[in-house]
Each structure stands twice: as structure tokens, then as C-alpha cells.
């Protein structure tokens, strides 16, 4: 059996320290099964990229998919909130968010921070980026004891695993960073899966390791030009098969089974990319149907371009008010209200009371984002 690390004993504590990547003795095996999973994952990622390029407004889909990944990744850690709660708070910062909702919003901000550093500051994936993302992930949480943006300085236990001693975490992370940038012995997609595994085994933080580790997959796929935008919500598969997720990670330590983990991971990439692609097409179809409805309606057809603009704004922000929409389309209150009233009559959106302003929800779109395919 392949050994994947060593135990360092201090008193009655057995710290597990993983060996450096890539796998050795034997080296990683590109089995026929793995090559098949790899081929499917690469094909589905390519299809997702191509589909997203055809979208007339990529930004609104990217935003929705980032929120979806944030919800799913957080849910794996037992952090539960709703898409509606997240959307409501991101559009109205005066609204008081629950701790769980704030943590999901923080995940979105953590990804934004990392992508900004990678794309605009032109930084490579590095400890500085990981620490900045972690700081954003756990900021503004009352009673936070997880030291945001700082590697842990104490011993932790994760199930049956006691991760490496805190004193060697900076060294282990430095070695992992070197592997990311200097080793090309395996395809980038597989390398990203191994980096996620190594990160989770090192467990460098007191809290937030799973979310940052899954975020790291997205960053690596983007950095290696396998993903154009952060529209892959890989946590969709990890959450759906969460018992296998943890089992596959653990079996690397207990059985040296890197190949088993990568097989699972590649299926996660393939299925998540497929789901994202199907969802994009369903959203495109919904938009075409509603545009046709506008075109055929005697009232809306007279202000067709403006009605299309209102519809488009709902795809960007599916929960809105007249006041918010006025700022977007730059029309009078009465004009916007007439269009919204007609949208409600046609069943395109729903209206609910709000203490300061009427709130309108694009439930058809919200349902598509949450639907199980």
C-alpha cells in the first residue's frame, strides 16, 4: 500500500503530516477509468465555457452561479440559509443578516477578493491570496475565534485525523504553493484535485478549511484556463454525495488511494459542469419565452425595449422594488409601476408587501436556480 504521509507523535497525540505532492511509490496511475472520467470532465467544462460565451449578459449568470456555489459549499459545513435571504441582503445592506446568511455572503466576497488578486493584481495562487480570502470569509462574524486570515496556531482534530502540527503549517503551505506553480507531471485538472486534497489534509485554519479548499479548485481551474469564469458550482456534487466526499478524502490517508479520490473528484467536475450547462440553457429558454410574451402583449409591446430592460434587470436581481428598478432603467415611478403591474398580471413575477416599498420576485428564475436536475 502506498504511504501518503507520516505520523509525528507528541505525548499521546499522533499528528498526521502528508508527504509532498505529487504521489510517489508508486506514482499516480492514470487508469482507464480515470482517463474516461477525465475526458468527460474536460468535455463538460469546454461545453460550459462555450455556452456561457453565447450569453448576452454573462455577468448576471456569473453572479447567480457564484451565489449557488456559496450556498452549496457552506451547506456542506452545516451552514444553511436560502437563496432569497442572500439575495435580499446583498441588495439591501440595511437588512439584518443572520450569521449563516452573512457567512454565505462572506464566501462570495472571499471569491471576489481572490479573483481580483489573480486577475487584476496578476498574483499567482499563493499564501497571500489564500489568507486574504480566508480573512474575507470569516470577517464580521460576532464572537469569531477562528482568527480570520491567519494560519492556525493550535492543534485541531477532524474526525479521526489530527492534522499537522501548527508550527509546520507555513512550510507545508509554501511547499504546496511550489507544487501548484512548478510541477507539471499531471494535467492541471487532476492537479487541482490533488491540491484540494492536500489543503484539506494540512487543514491550515481553525475554521473555513472546506470552503477555502473548494474555492481553491475554482481558482486553479480559472488560472489554468480550464474555466473562463467562476460558473462551476462543484459543491453541487460534493453536497449531493457528501458521505463519499469525506470517505474519498480520508481513504488517501488510510489506504493511499489517490486514484479513488481523483475518480470521485473528476465525476464531481463533470456532473457539476453538466448541471451548470443545463441550467444556463433552461434560463435562456425562460428568457426567450418571456420576451415572446412581452412582444405579443398589446400594452407591453408598445414599450417593448423598456419591458425587455425590466425583464433583464430581474435576471440580474430577481428580487427588487420599483425604487431599485428606477435607478437601473432611469424611468419615472409610474412608468415602471405600469410595466411591473402588467408583469404580475401575466404571471411573470409576483408581488409581496414590504414595509417601505412593494417587493417583486422573479420566482420562475429563482426556481430554475434551485431546481434539481
Automatic annotation (TrEMBL):
Keywords noted in UniProt: ATP-binding, Nucleotide-binding
Annotated SUPFAM superfamilies: Fic-like
Domain Fido per the UniProt entry, residue ranges: 125-267
GO MF annotation, one: ATP binding
Superkingdom of origin organism: Bacteria
InterPro entries: Fic/DOC_N, Fido, Fido-like_dom_sf, Fido_containing, SoFic-like
Binding positions for ATP per the UniProt entry: 77, 203, 207-214, 245-246
Catalytic site positions: 203
PANTHER family: FIDO DOMAIN-CONTAINING PROTEIN, FIDO DOMAIN-CONTAINING PROTEIN DDB_G0283145
Protein's name in the database: Fido domain-containing protein
Organism, scientific name: Candidatus Chromulinivorax destructor
Amino acid at each position: 500500500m502506498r504511504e501518503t504521509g507520516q505520523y509525528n507523535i507528541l505525548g499521546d497525540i499522533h499528528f498526521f503530516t502528508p508527504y509532498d505532492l505529487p504521489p510517489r511509490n508508486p506514482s499516480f496511475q492514470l487508469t482507464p477509468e480515470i482517463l474516461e472520467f477525465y475526458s468527460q470532465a474536460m468535455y463538460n467544462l469546454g461545453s460550459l465555457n462555450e455556452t456561457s460565451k453565447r450569453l448576452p449578459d454573462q455577468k448576471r449568470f456569473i453572479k447567480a452561479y457564484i451565489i449557488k456555489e456559496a450556498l452549496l459549499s457552506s451547506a456542506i459545513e452545516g451552514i444553511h440559509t436560502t437563496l432569497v435571504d442572500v439575495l435580499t441582503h446583498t441588495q439591501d445592506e440595511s437588512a439584518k443578516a443572520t450569521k449563516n446568511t452573512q457567512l454565505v455572503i462572506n464566501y462570495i466576497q472571499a471569491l471576489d477578493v481572490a479573483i481580483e488578486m489573480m486577475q487584476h493584481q496578476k498574483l499567482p495562487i499563493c499564501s497571500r491570496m489564500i489568507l486574504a480570502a480566508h480573512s474575507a470569509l470569516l470577517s464580521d462574524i460576532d464572537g469569531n475565534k477562528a482568527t480570520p486570515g491567519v494560519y492556525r496556531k493550535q492543534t485541531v482534530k477532524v474526525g479521526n485525523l489530527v492534522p499537522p502540527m501548527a508550527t509546520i503549517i507555513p512550510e507545508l503551505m509554501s511547499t504546496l504553493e511550489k507544487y501548484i506553480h512548478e510541477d507539471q507531471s499531471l494535467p492541471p485538472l487532476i492537479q487541482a484535485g490533488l491540491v484540494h486534497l492536500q489543503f484539506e489534509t494540512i487543514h491550515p485554519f481553525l475554521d473555513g478549511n472546506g470552503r477555502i479548499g473548494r474555492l481553491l479548485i475554482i481558482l486553479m481551474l480559472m488560472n489554468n484556463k480550464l474555466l473562463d469564469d467562476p460558473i462551476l458550482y462543484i459543491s453541487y456534487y460534493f453536497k449531493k454525495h457528501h458521505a463519499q466526499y469525506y470517505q474519498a478524502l480520508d481513504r488517501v490517508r488510510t489506504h493511499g488511494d489517490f486514484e479513488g479520490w481523483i475518480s470521485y473528484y473528476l465525476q464531481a467536475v463533470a456532473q457539476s459542469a453538466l448541471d451548470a450547462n443545463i441550467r444556463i440553457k433552461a434560463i435562456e429558454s425562460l428568457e426567450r419565452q418571456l420576451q415572446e410574451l412581452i412582444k405579443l402583449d398589446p400594452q407591453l409591446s408598445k414599450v417593448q425595449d423598456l419591458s425587455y430592460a425590466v425583464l433583464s434587470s430581474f435576471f440580474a436581481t430577481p428580487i427588487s422594488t420599483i425604487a431599485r428598478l428606477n435607478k437601473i432603467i432611469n424611468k419615472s415611478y409610474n412608468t415602471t409601476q405600469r410595466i411591473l403591474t402588467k408583469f404580475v398580471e401575466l404571471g411573470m413575477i409576483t408581488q409581496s408587501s414590504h414595509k417601505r416599498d412593494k417587493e417583486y420576485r422573479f420566482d420562475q428564475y429563482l426556481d430554475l436556480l434551485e431546481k434539481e436536475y
